Amino acid sequence: MNTVASADQGPDRSLADLIYEELLGRIVSGQLGPGSHLVEPQLATELHCSRTPLRVALTRLVSEGLVVQHRHRGCFVAQPDARQLREVYQVREVTEGLAAA
């Protein structure tokens, strides 16, 4: 998905949720590999969104340990361990099921 702003948001899903799911999918698929720099202006342009919902999504990924944030350097995809990868797949399974519904 290149445009999350135009996606069907549904009644309970915010733009930040859609951006989170898109970034999570890219991390899980390996499209954004460990150490990848997540440049906010570039991602906002690519996803056709403002930086505010993007930052909310990134903060959620940081809180889950999938992204690390370095002061004055930005956000980078973390190197998850086996437990974190299992959790990511479990979360993705649930969110994709909800998205399909």
What do these coordinates show?
This protein has 101 residues and is mainly alpha-helical. The chain has 4 helices and 3 strands. It has helices at 15-29, 40-47, 51-63, 82-100; strands spanning 37-38, 67-70, 74-77. Strand 2 and strand 3 form a beta hairpin. The model has no long low-confidence stretch (mean pLDDT 85).
Order of helices and strands: HEHHEEH
Biggest sheet statistics: 3 strands, antiparallel
Arrangement of strands in the largest sheet: 1-3-2
Distance between the termini: 18 Å
The proportion of residues in beta strands is 5-15%
Total count of strands = 3
Estimated radius of gyration? 13 Å
Shape descriptor: globular
* Separate helix tally: 4
Query: Spans with pLDDT under 50 lasting ≥5 residues?
Result: none
Which percent range fits the helix content? 40-55%
Mean pLDDT: 85
Brief overview, please?
By secondary structure, the chain is mainly alpha-helical. It has helices at 15-29, 40-47, 51-63, 82-100, and strands at 37-38, 67-70, 74-77. The model has no long low-confidence stretch (mean pLDDT 85).
